């Protein structure tokens, strides 16, 4: 306690210098906290777009389905997988995939038809919240579809537009149907945007004569480790191909790994900047007090006590500065959580990577534990920066220090 009182008095001896350093470290801490929250917000948005909208944490397919995308490579026991997911407190959504042509007037395009169970999709994922105009599919089959944004523009289709679907059915016949647009999605990913057509599983089965084929089951792991859950799902069907989102989207997985390393490399720059500011202050403070410290050594104060007192002074400076920085940073994060930064002003309303698009409104996301770690590391940077001047003055001989001019 005595060391802290001495440190506070020493800082008050040159208030201008202390205020300048305190302001610099506080601003440094505020910018660091705000920037970390923004970077974590971007990471969260990318992960949400990758896993919570449609892809999921885990996907199950027939062994050869992902390589060939054949309509006939369907899961043998999809209902058993759904029961296994329920037993593990996971949400799951079965899907069927087919390919064909969709047209409106003289406009036509190739499309991927995705048969879904709307109730399961709403429980497990958030794609139903990304409808730009119109509504998501209802629980009853009504020959309604929800289509991608770019496909809607290509076909010049709007909510209520009647589309003609032409596909090759499972029995080799030509499948045709009239489908009505119930909703148009926001931009959620290149594949869905350009050719995605979601329809009720019953409508899909009638169009493709699919006999209930399920090609994919997507799982929401509800925040748990997907790899552990795969080991619990695998015994349900030894032939099933179970993969995590990192295996399904390797480019995005690699980018996020590098992104996480870049965040801490970025933070290191702030710690070094704060440390240099404190180092400069402590060098000047010890230089001004060399004779005083020499007298203390002559009176019997040990070098380690001098080092401790100077390090405590830097710690007090860092603690006060980060308290102000934390307050300013949290206010900035709160604002950016609510308002965000609208990146669409730069001329593009879609931001995507590895086929996954995310919201152009960039919002911050506070990670409390990471923020506290950042504050503690800022204190540590201040203390470490003070060690050089502290050790330097502690090694001086008392007689020489007392005659210092």
Short description:
The protein is of the alpha+beta class and 405 residues long. It is 54% helix and 20% strand.
Task: Describe it.
It is a single chain. With 405 residues, the protein is of the alpha+beta class. The chain contains 15 helices and 14 strands. The protein has helices at 2-13, 15-52, 65-68, 78-87, 118-124, 149-155, 190-195, 201-208, 226-233, 245-248, 250-288, 290-298, 303-338, 368-394, 398-402; strands spanning 58-61, 91-104, 107-116, 131-134, 144-147, 162-168, 174-185, 196-200, 216-220, 241-244, 341-342, 351-353, 356-358, 361-362. Strands 2-3-8-5-7-6 form a six-stranded mixed barrel, surrounded by four helices. Strands 11-14 form a two-stranded antiparallel ribbon. Strands 12-13 form a two-stranded antiparallel ribbon. It is elongated. The two termini are 32 Å apart. The model has no long low-confidence stretch (mean pLDDT 85).
Key structural traits:
20% strand, alpha+beta, 6-stranded mixed β-barrel, two-stranded antiparallel sheet, 405 residues, single chain
Number of helical stretches of at least 4 residues: 15
Structural class: alpha+beta
What's the arrangement of strands in the largest beta sheet?
2-3-8-5-7-6
Helix content: 40-55%
